[in-house]
Amino acid sequence: MEKYQGIIFDLDGVICHTDRYHYLAWKALADRLGICFNEKINNRLRGVSRMESLEIILSNSGQIYTDTEKDKLANEKNENYRRSLAQMTPENLSPEVKGTLDFLRKSGCRLAIGSSSKNAGFILERIGLNGYFDAVVDGNQISHAKPDPEVFRCAARRLGLAPENCLVVEDALVGIEAAVRAGCDAAGMGDARKSSLAKYHLAAFSELKEVCG
Ligand code: G6P
Ligand code: MG
């Protein structure tokens, strides 16, 4: 068992199931445009920035879109997505996740969020975790999205820790790659559980108690 001084969590698909809302909002847009989109393609969007996600979806359209059109499409998706986020309450934070976070904190770990999302602050507020983490680094503060290591390097620095003393928890393959490139260990869950770069493969969030406790 390793003792990590810091744990950096991805947000969408790790702390809460906003990954589902991302999928539904992209699906609505793709359907309206008549573009093929499914869960398999959606897995490629995990951890990827909003505009890069749009590029992946539009690459199946066979059409060229101008930058202005792309901005409009990204806004349409984001407005739809934010309508789902606005419905969230602290009940959308599972007792398993909250209990595990509290356990890790009590055992002396510093806790951070490392997300590509520009909606991270809004989500944390909706689920009652505003001000809970020792550091929050999100898509508003970084120039390079995952798999670039910037977000996790920045989160470790904000925690005042060396990356090698931090564990990153991720559901995105690009997120695991970003963590390893930052010099952190990585725990994969969901779609990233199969990653060979991950040191731990979590079937449930609460398994972090055994990894870090
Ligand atoms: C997270 C999600 C991605 C999403 C990205 C940007 O990394 O896993 O699916 O595209 O954030 O999210 P945003 O809320 O800024 O559109
Ligand atoms: Mg994620």
TrEMBL record:
Q: Which reaction does it catalyse?
A: beta-D-glucose 1-phosphate = beta-D-glucose 6-phosphate
Q: Please list every transmembrane segment annotated in the UniProt record, as residue ranges.
A: none
| Keywords assigned by UniProt, alphabetized | Carbohydrate metabolism, Isomerase, Magnesium, Metal-binding, Phosphoprotein
The answer, when asked if Nucleotide-binding is one of the entry's keywords, is: no
What one GO molecular function would you report for this record? beta-phosphoglucomutase activity
Please state the Enzyme Commission number of this protein.
5.4.2.6
Q: Which cofactor does it need?
A: Mg(2+)
User: Is Metal-binding one of the keywords?
Assistant: yes
Mind telling me which SUPFAM superfamilies this protein's record contains?
HAD-like (SSF56784)
Name of one Pfam family that matches: Hydrolase
Q: Which family does it belong to?
A: Belongs to the HAD-like hydrolase superfamily. CbbY/CbbZ/Gph/YieH family.
- PANTHER family assigned to the protein according to its UniProt record, in alphabetical order: 6-PHOSPHOGLUCONATE PHOSPHATASE, HEXITOL PHOSPHATASE B
Q: What is this protein called?
A: Beta-phosphoglucomutase
Species name: Caproiciproducens galactitolivorans
Q: Which gene encodes it?
A: pgmB
